[in-house]
Amino acid sequence: MSLHQAKPPRVGDSPAVRRTLIALVLLVGAVLVLAPLIVIFVQAFSLGIQAFTAAIGEPDTLHAILLTVITALIAVPINTAFGVAAAWAVTKFDFPGKRLLIVVIEIPFSISPIVAGVAYLFVYGLQGLLGPALQAADIKILFALPGIVLASMFVTAPFVARELIPLMQAQGRDLEEAATSLGASGWRTFWSVTLPNVRWALLYGVVLCNARVMGEFGAVSVVSGNIRGQTNTLPLHIELLYHDYQTAGAFAAASILTVLAVVTIIAKVALERRGAGRRSRVSIAAPSMIAEEPTS
Amino acid sequence: MKIRLDQVVKSFDTFRAVHGVSLEVASGELVALLGPSGSGKTTILRMIAGLEYADGGTISFGNQDATTIPVRERGVGFVFQHYALFPHMTVSENIAFGMKVSKVKRSKKAIADRVEELLSLVQLEGLADRFPNQISGGQRQRVALARALAVDPKVLLLDEPFGALDAAVRRDLRIWLRAIQEKLGITTLFVTHDQEEALDLADRVVILNGGKIVQEGTPEDVTRRPNSAFVTRFLGDTNRLQGHARGGQIFLGGANVAAPDIRDGQAEIYVRPADLEWTGEGEGVHATVTRVIDRPDNRRVLARLDNGEPVELDVAPETRLARGDQGYLKIRRANVFAG
């Protein structure tokens, strides 16, 4: 105590405030986030390892895992390509409607996924806009994989673009212009100059996009029809098991989804570390950038 | 390679950046495009490079019309203001980039040899494996130059090449760039807003204002025979005095300035601080010292004429002068423009 009195803390660094605040945040974090995660694993293994593997090995559960992975394998690459293209268009070109495009990209962030699901029903459903035509052509979108993929893509459309746009905006066009003036084609410039400079942000966006695709419930629930063993993704299957009073099975399936999420988070943290390393190295160059005076 | 611009025009949205600029740069010449912010100098350089397309007029390289040749095929070396080095590539990878993406296929060995040669040209032999953010600003500038030279450009274009560097490094690099340019004999254009840089470095200076060329010529031409008040003021410190022209002479209280080409009437007289002489008594314009500033190579005296106009002049460091001293100014040299 005498030590604290001898050395007054910095402004806003009162020890009491600091300790209370840290304790409060840790407590809330533990109760709100960590405890439920632990409960999932405890419950999943409550009947023993064998019951767990049996629950996972159940054909419907396996199918749900497979469907989830397939959905991610289709939706994530398409949305990555879309995100890169959108970020490129917004940051490298000037065109009318640019601001509108940015708003449109962000809509899925602010809209409830269930609204997206219902909207897809209206477009592709039997009573919907394209329903009769699709049925005539014998194309099944709703209550099948295409619908699930579309709904997942809607929800996750902004993830990659949102990560890339601020970074690419900060980088400007100089590097691309330099590469082109040195004789590189547009394609070559993209692969050897643009992409390497945004790679961590891109990977981070992909990781988040993937996590969301795998975990999406609301939009997929509307368009998939919840057909057990056919159109049930992992999140939908968990809900189904839970309502069937198959608690251990539900928790086992949930634990799989949680593991997927945890792996995602670990990947994200690892990427952020590398990204942070890069950023701090770049900041060595910052003082000279600040000293530069803007000219014509 | 000779460069010719003929009536080149460029507008951005509603803003007209370049108004009908015509310019010729001889093969092997080193030319500075000098002007204040917004004078269109960078736009002209970018149009020559092909980074912007002209709205009107033609740009030719040698006898070839290059107006619509894309930057990729124009064969220019461009050094960007902030260098635009690829941050994820080492110094040698940066320099090799142009050769790697070129349509002309080179062996790995040929590229490595050329990188080696360029590194020694720009005196960065030990830094081949560093990344751009691990080297100093002056070194980055030299890497950018080596990278631009690697593809054997017909023309070298530099946008504010020393803008981001501190004064001492800037001076060294200026001398060094001039030496390299003479050695390679490559036609070179650079953009600057720093008149000292332009005069130090260039064979010929092109002065721009408001998207037009206002004067071009050797450093001697433009400094000794500026054709307008703008050029006079832009090239360095100057005093502006009001006078009256009559019969080829301008009368300033106590001092006359010859102005054979000026019509009778109101005139502006521009006098550099070093072209004013201070005498304790005798002829000249009467003035009172208001302040003395000591500088490494002279003393700058701020004084006021009897009509209240402020003037500045440079005197030898040992001159004893202080605030309140009175004396006379003799005009050794002046540029006169109709008012």
Automatic annotation (TrEMBL), chain A:
<feature type="transmembrane region" description="Helical">
    <location>
        <begin position="141"/>
        <end position="161"/>
    </location>
</feature>
<feature type="transmembrane region" description="Helical">
    <location>
        <begin position="65"/>
        <end position="88"/>
    </location>
</feature>
<feature type="transmembrane region" description="Helical">
    <location>
        <begin position="21"/>
        <end position="45"/>
    </location>
</feature>
<dbReference type="InterPro" id="IPR035906">
    <property type="entry name" value="MetI-like_sf"/>
</dbReference>
<keyword id="KW-0472">Membrane</keyword>
<dbReference type="InterPro" id="IPR005667">
    <property type="entry name" value="Sulph_transpt2"/>
</dbReference>
<dbReference type="InterPro" id="IPR011866">
    <property type="entry name" value="CysW_permease"/>
</dbReference>
<feature type="transmembrane region" description="Helical">
    <location>
        <begin position="247"/>
        <end position="271"/>
    </location>
</feature>
<dbReference type="InterPro" id="IPR000515">
    <property type="entry name" value="MetI-like"/>
</dbReference>
<feature type="transmembrane region" description="Helical">
    <location>
        <begin position="201"/>
        <end position="227"/>
    </location>
</feature>
<keyword id="KW-0764">Sulfate transport</keyword>
<protein>
    <submittedName>
        <fullName>Sulfate ABC transporter permease subunit CysW</fullName>
    </submittedName>
</protein>
<feature type="transmembrane region" description="Helical">
    <location>
        <begin position="100"/>
        <end position="121"/>
    </location>
</feature>
<dbReference type="Pfam" id="PF00528">
    <property type="entry name" value="BPD_transp_1"/>
</dbReference>
<comment type="subunit">
    <text>The complex is composed of two ATP-binding proteins (CysA), two transmembrane proteins (CysT and CysW) and a solute-binding protein (CysP).</text>
</comment>
<keyword id="KW-1133">Transmembrane helix</keyword>
<keyword id="KW-0812">Transmembrane</keyword>
<comment type="function">
    <text>Part of the ABC transporter complex CysAWTP (TC 3.A.1.6.1) involved in sulfate/thiosulfate import. Probably responsible for the translocation of the substrate across the membrane.</text>
</comment>
<feature type="domain" description="ABC transmembrane type-1">
    <location>
        <begin position="65"/>
        <end position="269"/>
    </location>
</feature>
<keyword id="KW-0813">Transport</keyword>
From TrEMBL, chain B:
<keyword id="KW-0067">ATP-binding</keyword>
<comment type="similarity">
    <text>Belongs to the ABC transporter superfamily.</text>
</comment>
<dbReference type="InterPro" id="IPR003593">
    <property type="entry name" value="AAA+_ATPase"/>
</dbReference>
<keyword id="KW-0813">Transport</keyword>
<dbReference type="InterPro" id="IPR008995">
    <property type="entry name" value="Mo/tungstate-bd_C_term_dom"/>
</dbReference>
<protein>
    <submittedName>
        <fullName>Sulfate/molybdate ABC transporter ATP-binding protein</fullName>
    </submittedName>
</protein>
<dbReference type="InterPro" id="IPR027417">
    <property type="entry name" value="P-loop_NTPase"/>
</dbReference>
<dbReference type="Pfam" id="PF00005">
    <property type="entry name" value="ABC_tran"/>
</dbReference>
<keyword id="KW-0764">Sulfate transport</keyword>
<keyword id="KW-0547">Nucleotide-binding</keyword>
<dbReference type="InterPro" id="IPR050093">
    <property type="entry name" value="ABC_SmlMolc_Importer"/>
</dbReference>
<dbReference type="InterPro" id="IPR017871">
    <property type="entry name" value="ABC_transporter-like_CS"/>
</dbReference>
<feature type="domain" description="ABC transporter">
    <location>
        <begin position="3"/>
        <end position="235"/>
    </location>
</feature>
<dbReference type="InterPro" id="IPR003439">
    <property type="entry name" value="ABC_transporter-like_ATP-bd"/>
</dbReference>
<dbReference type="GO" id="GO:0005524">
    <property type="term" value="F:ATP binding"/>
</dbReference>
<keyword id="KW-1278">Translocase</keyword>
<dbReference type="InterPro" id="IPR005666">
    <property type="entry name" value="Sulph_transpt1"/>
</dbReference>
